[in-house]
Amino acid sequence: MSSISAGLVLSEYIDDPDEAGIVAEFAYRMLEDDPEITREWTEWYIAEQNRVSPEALAWMAAKGGRHFLMYSALTESGYISEMTLSEILTDPELYARSVPDCGRGAGAYSWVNTLDGGS
What we know:
Blueprint: H1 2-11, H2 17-32, H3 35-49, H4 54-63, H5 67-74, H6 82-88, H7 92-97
Helix pairs in contact: 1-2, 4-5
């Protein structure tokens, strides 16, 4: 609950309205989810963040239906531009549903190619 509260409070201080919206939406979604599932996903994200690349973490989160965690991981990637991150904010759920299989990314999904050494 403390992370949800922090997200809601901090979202008010984020200058970019799109980023503020995604932080607030993530906090509200956490409130709607089963608390045990939320805890499990949060623990998973923290553990995996220390084990795999941001791109692998983003891919796993997207495939798991956690577009907010996907976006968070992608902000740490060196393979995605600020412009693409801004575009993702327009509909992060749609972007997450469209993430291709490893090595098959193009354009805004080219970061997926880093997962198996793609082209």
